[in-house]
Design brief:
Elements lengths: L2 E10 L14 E10 L13 H12 L4 H8 L3 H10 L1 H16 L6 H10 L3 E3 L5 E3 L2 E3 L1 H15 L9 H9 L1
Antiparallel strand pairs: 1-2, 3-4, 4-5
Length: 173
């Protein structure tokens, strides 16, 4: 164990002096204090390298659960929670950046671009994220489902989009 000795000096007033009177020097007394030096905190090896950690944080910012992230990256849920906590400011930045990008008009994700291209003039984009399919209001899942029916008839691979498969199955019954 590493120790460090520190000497602390204090001035004891000379006999007959009152504290604060005169400028006569008093007697110096020394007290030796021994302090234990604590070892430097070792953070050890990081759980993930920087690029993998950034990918995990990006997925966490998109709303992925701790359990799914733990399974995907080979960590425990507690480790994922700790990563979220330690990088909470970065997560907030990522979420804010994603919201700003989603608010920009004309920025359409690739699966939707492919669906719009497949359907051609059957779709139209309105303000504030609303869409028309064959002149009627439709959500993005219905647009992608309609594009997948056309692609299936042409023998092309379907467009993968969340929540579309149940719609196609219901339409085929």
């Amino acid at each position: 164990m590493k120790m460090q000795a520190v000497t602390i000096y204090s001035v004891r007033p000379a006999q007959g002096d009152r504290v604060g009177q005169g400028e006569r020097a008093g007697r110096m007394t020394g007290v030796i204090v021994v302090r234990r030096k604590l070892p430097a905190v070792s953070r050890g090896k990081p759980l993930l390298d920087r690029s993998t950690r950034d990918r995990l944080l990006a997925e966490a910012a998109e709303g992925e659960s701790d359990q799914a992230l733990a399974e995907e990256y080979g960590l425990s849920e507690a480790q994922v929670r700790k990563l979220r906590h330690n990088h909470r400011h970065r997560l907030a930045e990522l979420r804010q950046r994603a919201e700003e990008q989603a608010a920009e008009p004309g920025d359409v994700p690739p699966p939707l671009r492919l669906a719009f291209r497949t359907l051609g003039d059957r779709t139209a984009a309105l303000r504030h994220g609303a869409f028309l399919l064959d002149g009627r209001p439709a959500d993005l899942r219905r647009i992608v489902a309609a594009a997948n029916r056309i692609r299936q008839a042409e023998g092309a691979a379907p467009i993968r989009y969340p929540g579309v498969l149940p719609l196609i199955e219901r339409a085929c019954r």
